[in-house]
Amino acid sequence: MSAATAVPRRAEPPLPWLRPYQRIAGQAVLRRIFRREGGSVSIEIARQGGKNELSAQIELALLLARMRAGGTVVKCAPTFEPQARLSMRRLRNRAAEAGLSILVRSEGATVRCGNAAAQFLSAEPTANVVGHTADLLLEADEAQDIDVETFDRAFRPMAASTNAPVVFYGTPWAANSLLEQAKAANLAAERTDGVRRHFQFDCNAVAEEVPPYRAHVDGERARLGERHPLFRTQYLLEVVHDAGRLLDGASLAQVEGEHERRSTPMAGERYVAGLDLAGAASEERDGSRDRDWTVLTVARLVPGGEGGPRIEVVEHQAWQGVATESLLATLADRLRRVWRVRRLAIDATGLGGPIAELLTSRLGRSTVEAVTFTAERKSRLGFGLLAAVHSGRLRLYRMDGSVEWAECRRQLELARAVYRESRLMQFHVDPSEGHDDYLMSLALAVWAARFEGGERTARGRLPEPVTAERIPA
Question: Which CATH class for the 3-222 domain?
């Protein structure tokens, strides 16, 4: 007799509202709970494929099954606001849709049904979660974004004395994340006893069950490009490497254009620009050749294309060691009177802030966007640049033998990407190899184009509100 059949069995709830692939994972979780097998399960489902819906249905089934006997589900998320609270809201909504509002009630961060409860907690390192016990189930939502040490110290012990299963939900990111560690351990255990513990359903698996979902995925593929880190991790369920080149050889080939460089605009065309300002730190270096440059990238927007307008860089202008007042006058005149740019994104970090304000006073707030390089904003700039490259929308002017042409491509070749927690990316050129002023100016020009081009959001809608995730792009 096996260990599984030695324990008195109790019928698991059928989870009728879930799609087939969700039921496979959900029933495996419930089986571990009702057979008191404990252990770990990891679940990866492509974005908007129903990962959070699966979790809510499991929670609701447990609350109903244990409303008399009692028991507690503990679910942690990287943040309480909005992630844990959204999970609470989803659970309450599912109870209401099933006509169970009179049974399922909320009390603070807890959802109760009779003697059973689901407790929702923040997994932020500073959160105080001491004293909770998960005797039915411990869940880690978006486990790839939860600090490993925090989970092991504060949450894993909650299920130790009760042998409750631990379920890790998420989509891949870095190779050393909590989700990847759980996945590796589960796959190793599967090879030993043949019992499935890891469940992975990428965008193709979801589309097999939900045909309209494929249109959404095709839209994201066009917008981001199939090799974009966010598409690879959230839809193809691939892990990104911790560090490497921002652009590979194929991506560098994609940005090569056939159009001519221009020093003046053409009538009827729309232009945007990105301006990276020389940092004050460059003045402390020895020799003017090692100083940063102020780099202006001008691009025209060409309508059409699945992912948005094509962004064709038509001009680079660079200055080194020019007095601020003189440079401001030159920039304002060229941008307003010559190029008549529709949008300018400017690096407003540090000393760039006052310069951005001065340019705004001359060009107008509707034209200038001051971009402060916080970790989150710079990450969005990098992902935006990658999306434009991988979707084929960004093109540089053809080789003209100029210093600007050569330096821009050199920096693109040298640019590195480092993937951080919470899906943040840092991109830069190693200072030992050179500067990144052309790189940042180009990223800012792409950022400016998103406003004039009509920023797209994720397309497509899943037909089943019970199982469709609603996560903003």
Answer: alpha beta
